[in-house]
Amino acid sequence: MSLLLLLAFFSISYGAVKNCYTIRYLFFDVAKMCISYKYEKNKIKIEAHAFSEGLLKLIRNVEYYGFAVSSKDFQSRKFHFYRREGSVREIHDYLFYPAHIIFKKTVIKGAEEKVEKKKIKNDGYIDPFTASLYYYRQIINREKIYKKIFFNGKSYYIPVKRIKDTQIKINGKRYKAVYAEIDPSKVKVGGVIQPTGIWKIWIDKKKKILLKGILKIRVGFVTVEIKR
Fold it and tell me: What global pTM score does this model have?
């Protein structure tokens, strides 16, 4: 899935929290990503927005936006995701019910529009944004990951390895972190951000948010790093 879908990490707190990241390819800053979280009584809302800038924007204008609503125990309720790469737009809308999921996907290429809609059995699946909260909590707490992610009409289990506790220095500040590796390469997303191998990530041990990621995608390796 996209950078947004796999890197929407969460710092559990009441009210609103927002984290922004710089995305680098080779030696260039090519995109910016911001993720905001709102934790209310019985629900969590995650909202994310990423867009190309600098060199990448000149070559290929890319934008992603999405949000998810779930219960506080990570039961998905609603998911929306919008992807634009050049002249192609893709829109996902999912509604989660205890027994089934209403899946809708719209692809627009120029004047052509294709809509796919179907009802799918829900075997306890969670949307990609909510899955991020769940996965990273499990990693920090050394607990088993058993929930599958639902995206693009299919369910996926993403292998995760918690490698070690460590420290990482970003912009002159040192953080206590957990280093882990995930493999999202089986998730079919398409576009320039299609995962093609292991993603290396560093998670803030205290706040449970992403600090840094080195991600293997179709165009090579990109680095995602928190802005302070």
Answer: 0.83
